[in-house]
Amino acid sequence: MQPTTSVRQLLENYIKEKGLSLHQFSEISGVNAGTLSGLINHRKRMSMLQLDRISAGMGLAEGSLYELYVEECLAESSPDWRRLRSLLMRCAELDKLDCIQRIIFAIMDNLTYVPHLFELAEQWYLIGRTKAAALLYQCVAESEKYQHSERLALCQYRLFTIHLGNDREANISLAASFEPYVERLAEANRLDALKDLADTYAANQRWTKVEQLAEEMGSKAAIQYRLALGANQRRNLDPESSQERMHRPLLFYILYAYLLRANVCEARGDYRQALNYVSLYTDLNWVQSCSETERIIIEQFKEWGRANACLYRLMSGEVKVLPEYVNYLASHHSEKVPALLKIMEAANRHYFQVDDILERFGSHLKFAGREHAFGDYHAGIAADQQTRLLCELAAYYLSTERVETGMNYIMACLETCAAFYSEAVVLRCVGLFEKYRTWATPERKKQYTNLISEVQRKHEEKRSFTADCV
Questions:
Q1: Which of 248, 251, 315, 423 has the smallest CB count inside 10 Å?
Q2: CA 261 to CA 201: how far, in whole Å?
Q3: What CA–CA distance (Å, rounded) separates 426 from 453?
């Protein structure tokens, strides 16, 4: 069969070559014979349903005629949005991103399509078709890049969240590019945007930025919370009635801001101040009225507070709290990696033995995901914790002269860094290996050299890709 320039010509040729009548192909495809005649003779427009049935009747893979159909639609002087929408929907369902790109490239100069594309992008985003949605958001953002619009800001926010990945430098670049748009967002999205930015910077140890964003998020949420509380009291309304547009209750953002600021203090080694922030998100006598959702949030933060208070005391050198912290670890499967990381950091800093703990929880060293009642844990932070834990384990075993085990963890850590690069962790691995190099076998030295080369190669590839995208 020779390629043709239209679906109609392809259909007509197929019927002739197979020696079929329109009625016979109608039986095969499920498309009415009169409709087939009208389509072939250009008296009728072909719908998406008809296109799919004709493709199946011709024995073709689903979506294989979409490229031709796209060109037919775009050949019209002003393509009908309903027809284009159906085509875009089917392309998204079949993950035919090239067809979506072709359509939006052809129509992006016509501003009447922009609201429709944005609405469709939002629908796709909510059901998880983020790759397809990103193409539409990018188109809308390009069309409105010179406008100070909320829609532009929301497009940039969606693109920021969609494109976040394991590349630290790429994530920081994404955060920096998106940050100027935060203030243009509606209140319902602004607090979430500040939280997502803070989480991204936290995953990359940019603690000054985390502190700044946490302070801003907490301040904005506290103002809105007081206003909403006063309005509800005057009208005798339910506490959540004025927060319906928010994705989470305002109380969450207030407490999460305190938690972030405690994390900043922890990173700086100021455990006394970190404990002060713990008290701010656990001693909640100031909360006057509570919805069921807020009660769940309060209990979650109190639970985190009990664990973190133990942690900060442990990091300060109070080894006596270790059993309590281990009990917390035992009852919270999803917290094992971050909890073990902190235990190992404390053990390496204050020189105490934790072999019994590692023996008990050694099978849980792989991060399996963390969830709570109001959202998943940030993926970048999770990957960072996994990498740092491997490095701390290497340091622990090497310091106790179990060199082979320590070397194994160095290699495992470097393998992880090839996917999720951390300069600080790589440098520490290099330092540890060089310190114990004389203990390493020739095979181990070769493995180390190969891994370092792989980490550098992957890192350079990611940097090059990021530069090309920018």
A1: 423
A2: 13
A3: 12
